Amino acid sequence: MTVDSVPDHVEPFWFPHSCTILLPAAAIAPKICRDFVTTVLGLIGFGYLAERAALCTSELVTNAHRYAGGLVHLQFTADRTRVRVSVYDSGPERPRLRLATDDQVGGRGLGLVDAVADDWGITDSRSGLPSKGVWFELHTLRAVA
């Protein structure tokens, strides 16, 4: 399958999709979440989005691991025209997009998400707990067809 092809085997009645994973914000969390998202994308016929989704997921979960600790709540939703991945953590600080200098080790994550995702943003937790979520969206080929 090429990036320009839309899989025919995914029926419209399969949408919308929603699934969640909750895990400790450990060093292995970015890999687990990245694998989860790319696997689900493949299962629902959006495997062509896997590379971009893996990068964005990894960056958001890595930020949760580095800066918040506690638990990471990843929510995956998809419909025929878009995929949204939201990463919630218990960190009180809202992340901000900044330009990293060449000598900085960190500070590039949201810049990468901004460059790769079709849209992204920050939201408060819907659970009422003191937390925030960072999300990104990728448009499917059906959105541009």
TrEMBL record:
Keywords associated with the record: Kinase, Serine/threonine-protein kinase, Transferase
Listed SUPFAM superfamilies: ATPase domain of HSP90 chaperone/DNA topoisomerase II/histidine kinase
Keyword Lipid metabolism recorded: no
GO molecular function: protein serine/threonine kinase activity
All residue ranges annotated as the Histidine kinase/HSP90-like ATPase domain in the record: 49-123
Pfam family, one: HATPase_c_2
InterPro entries associated with the record: Anti-sigma-factor_SerPK (IPR050267), HATPase_C_sf (IPR036890), HATPase_dom (IPR003594)
Record-linked PANTHER family: ANTI-SIGMA-F FACTOR RSBW (PTHR35526:SF3), ANTI-SIGMA-F FACTOR RSBW-RELATED (PTHR35526)
Protein name per UniProt: Histidine kinase/HSP90-like ATPase domain-containing protein
Species per Swiss-Prot/TrEMBL record: Kitasatospora indigofera
Origin organism lineage: Bacteria, Bacillati, Actinomycetota, Actinomycetes, Kitasatosporales
